[in-house]
Amino acid sequence: MTTAKAQPERPAPVRRAGGAHQKLLAFASLIVLVIGFSIASQRFFQIDNILSILQAASVNGVLAVGVTLIIITGGIDLSIGTMMTFCAVITGVVLTWMGAPLLVGVLTAIATGAACGLLSGTLVTKARIPPFIATLGLMLVLKGLSLIVTGTKPIYFNDTPGYTEISTGSLVGLVMPQFPLPNGVLVLFLVAAIVGWILTRTVLGRYTFALGSNEEAVRLSGVNTDRWKIAIYALAGAICGIAGLLISSRLNSAQPALGLGYELEAIAAVVIGGTSLSGGRGTILGTLIGALIMAVLTNGLRVLSVAPEWQTVVTGVIIIVAVYADQLRRRKAA
Q1: Most CB within 10 Å of its CB: which of 44, 115, 175, 255?
Q2: Rama region for 292: left / alpha / beta (φ>0; ψ in -120 to 50; rest)
């Protein structure tokens, strides 16, 4: 009597999409917000204000794109805000204190972010520290290091020609003077396009979704999951370095006390865009829509002269609603 050979376990199917329904709902919400604020205030739907919204969305959007990768794997990163600040501070040290060329400063920001992401991924995979705790600890470490390196004082880029052009300059404005789209927005779109391509067209992207869908099955199939997860965290860190360039370029300074709170808005944008906190599902397009929703909401409340403390309350409510909506989607999919 012959016995059938046991078939090797295959990884669970990977859900790549964030859900067309969710993206459509998020886009509809964005349109409703724009129409509502335009009716409430004539100042809202003006070219200068629209450009301000896009400029504000660029930093949060780049951060959101980076953390999307980590959330798809089923992880979380609370350090992205202070990581962004730390990258800006190190860039300031290299450019203003050491007098390095602009290109060296740009590469330094990206490399610093990648190194921080590498550390996060190592803590999560090798030290087996839960992502929430590992990145929370790193958040505090990077915040403290930023203050120590600078002596709690900002680093200004007045002696670095061309630095502010990274975010506030306008290549589009050279062709279309009536619509001087900031370079920071172009950087956001470029980063989003590259990461979107990575997620859908590369091995790293396939493993990003697979790790979030069923990490144990991927490990049993012989894949070194730790190595791929570390690579994902490092890539997300490099993207945080780009966000550090954008915000320091816009402010013309590296502000060491800045950064806390950015991670919440970025995570909210990711969840609003349809990426599941349980992992395995998400899209960069949805994240971009979520980042625009957050920027429109913040700007609209400011135009309507809503007190800053109430703006914070509204942001908190949106985060709660977005997470609750994600929970409902997961229950329906179960």
Answers
A1: 44
A2: alpha
